[in-house]
Every structure is written in structure tokens, then in C-alpha cells.
Amino acid sequence: MLIISTSLSILLLSTWLVPAKRLWEVITAQSLIIAIASMVWFCIQNNTLFLNSYFTIDQISSPLLILTCWLTAPTLLASQSKLSKEPIPRQRAYIFTIITLQATTLLAFLADNMMLFFILFESTMIPTLIIITRWGAQKERMLAGTYLLFYTLFGSMALLTALLFFHETFGTLSISLIKDSMKELHPSACMMAWWAACFTAFLVKMPLYGVHLWLPKAHVEAPIAGSMILAGTLLKLGGYGILRISAIINDSFLNAAAPLIIFSMFGVLLSAALCSRQTDLKSLIAFSSVSHMGLVIAASFLKTDWSIAGSLILMISHGLVSSALFCLANTSYERTHTRTLIILQGSQIILPLSAAWWLMAALLNMALPPSPNFIGEMSILSSLFQWSNLTLIIMGVSILFTTSYSLYMFWSTQREYPPMHIKFMPPIQTREHILLALHVIPALLLTIKPGLLF
Known about the structure:
Elements: H1 2-17, H2 23-37, E1 49-50, E2 56-57, H3 61-83, H4 88-110, H5 114-123, H6 125-135, H7 141-170, H8 175-180, H9 189-205, H10 214-221, H11 224-247, H12 254-275, H13 281-302, H14 305-336, H15 341-344, H16 347-350, H17 352-365, H18 372-387, H19 391-414, H20 430-448
Antiparallel strand pairs: 1-2
Helix pairs in contact: 1-2, 1-4, 2-3, 3-4, 3-11, 3-14, 3-20, 4-5, 4-6, 4-11, 5-7, 6-7, 7-9, 7-10, 9-11, 10-13, 11-13, 11-14, 12-13, 12-19, 13-14, 13-18, 14-17, 14-18, 14-20, 17-19, 17-20
């Protein structure tokens, strides 16, 4: 714990102490060193590492911790071109806010006490709101911030009430102690309300289809760093919370989860269909996140070994691939100053290397074998099929829609003839190639050894 806190403290202090000329280079280098050092958490496979009485690392949290550390450096690299033109105090404030958000997320994944997890879970909303409302490019950013605030607060009040009941029932809020002293809870009207309250905040955060309206607005209005962190790590807090709470609630509530599993699968289908109707590139990628997270929700509630492993793999691979797609959308936006798909077409003729990155990201997003998305989805589909044979129909149609919107996204942005106004674009920079490599190469390496995430 001392190593983690020292590294984060040095990174936060460096934001204000490093000379302005070397600000971005030093902070990015420090973030990469922390990301490489975090790889040791892969060694935690079959045991739990207790840092102290409040923070632990186990098989569920370690891949998400590594993902959080790994995405910090790409987030800074993606922001450099736009923010380097602003005054130095604003640059420092921006970097400080991003690192604070990542540090809070990191501590939330480490928390063993549920009340501490709740506090850190809600604390992530403050820097996220600052990033969206302060550095968003359009006037609708205030509306997006309002949506995010009220949707999150709605779920949080229910979760806080459920945690108070947890403490009354078990006498503690330590996840490790509750696992060791499980009590048999029988589904009644009161228990069902408590069970629903436990998961409401996490379902809003994922988000579940139906309470997802804040996500496309937040993605469209946020700067590139906000979109990358939101897709890469913040949505995973919801899945992590569901896995944690599910582990300490007995299987007598599994029948109550059946309507939610069915609804989330229909959400996967509907959000995948909506992707093909989007005209804004960032909105399309945001709706694809809703589709993927619906699968994670369904798998998390099944509580089988394959479904939990599949949901974790899908969360990690989605964090890398979705963040890469937002990076590619940002490279197009910086050159054309638009996110409308019909105006972006034909970019492959001008920027062929960028088109190669687009193709790779689209193939990973559609779960092409043997990508980690494919491994995660197959694990989830096999679990769902064992739960009910009829789920195969819904999931089969959803996969068709996922393939169609991924190819539609690639075709709309890269193929056809380019409009007259984008025939003169600056080439892709080395910084952007490194940025995309930091997303795609780890995803490809995980295809070689997916057992790291099981």
C-alpha cells in the first residue's frame, strides 16, 4: 500500500513542480513506469493480498487495477495536442484532475470495506464532472453533467440504504469477513427491495439499457480524456461492484435476477440496433459500450465460474478497445472538426495507416476470433445457454447487429470518396501511433495468454 500511495503522491506533486517545458513528457513517463510496475499484480492468481485492514488485491480486482494504471499514460498522450496550446496553469489543472480521477478509481478497486468503496465510488463523479463541464467543447456539456449527476445520485441513495442494512445484518462491512460469516437470507418483500437497492447504483453506472441516457451525452460532450477514462475504467466500477455484492449474497436470490438478465439481453440487442442509426461517431461508440456492458450485467448475475470469468475478460478487453476507438475518433475530429459520419468518409485514401488502426479496432470490437472480446463473449454465451436455451436466439441476433455496426463504423469513416474539404489533412503523428499501439498491442497479447484474466 505504501508503494501505491507513494507513486500516486509523486505523480500528483510532479504535476505542479515539473518545469512547464517538460511537463507532458515527465508526467507521461512517470505514468508509464507505474503502468509497467503494476504488471506484478498478474501474479495474484489464487490468493488474496491483504495490504491492510481496508485495502486488498485479489483475482477480480488485479486485472482492473492493471487496466486503470495502464490507461493513465494513453489518456495524457491523447490530450497533449489540444491542451498544450492552453495556458500552463490550465494544463496543470487538467493533468491533476485526470490523475486524481485515476487514483480514486484505483483506490475504489482496492477497497475491502463496502462503505469505503461507496465513498470512493461516488468520489469519482467529482473529477469526472469537472473534466466534462470545464473542458468540454460544446455548450451542452452542462446538460451532460446534470444528467450524470442526477442519474448517479439516484442510484447512490438506494445503495447507501442497502449498506446500512448490510451493517445491521452482518455486523460489519468488510467484504472478507462477510464472505466468511455468510447468513442465509430468504427472499421476502423486504429482502427483495434490499436486493434491488444493492445493485441499482451499479446498474446505472454500467449502464443498464433504460438508465443509459447519461452515457451518450457524457461521451459526446467530454474531451478525449473524459471519454477514454469513462469507457476504459469508470464503467468497470459498476461491473466490479456487481461482482463484489453478488459474491456475498447467497444463491436464493438467483430467481429474482431472471427478469433483469432477460432485460439486459434485450438491452444488448436494442443498443446494438441503435448503433446502426447513429450519425455522430462518438455517440455510436458510446451506444456500443451500452451493448457490451449489457452482456457483462447478464453474466455477473448468473454467478457461475464461466460467467464471472467471461464478464471480467470482456470488461478488460472493452476498456482497451473502446478507449482505442475514442482515440481514433479524436484523431479524425482534430483534422476535420466534425464527428458526422457522412462527412468523415474516405479517410483511408489520405491516411492509410490510420485506416489500418481503424480496421484493427473494428475487428476487435466485433469480437473476431481469437480476440479477448471473443473469449469473453463465448464464455458468457455458454453460461447463458446453460441457464436457458432461448437466450441463444437473442444473443445470435445481437452478434449480427454488433458485426453490422462495427463494419458500418469502419465503412462510414474510411471507405467511399472523401469530400472536397478533407482532401488536405495533416498526417498522423508518431505520438498518435504510440497511443493506439498502447491500446491494441495489449489486447493482441491477451489473445496469446488469456489465462491471465481467468
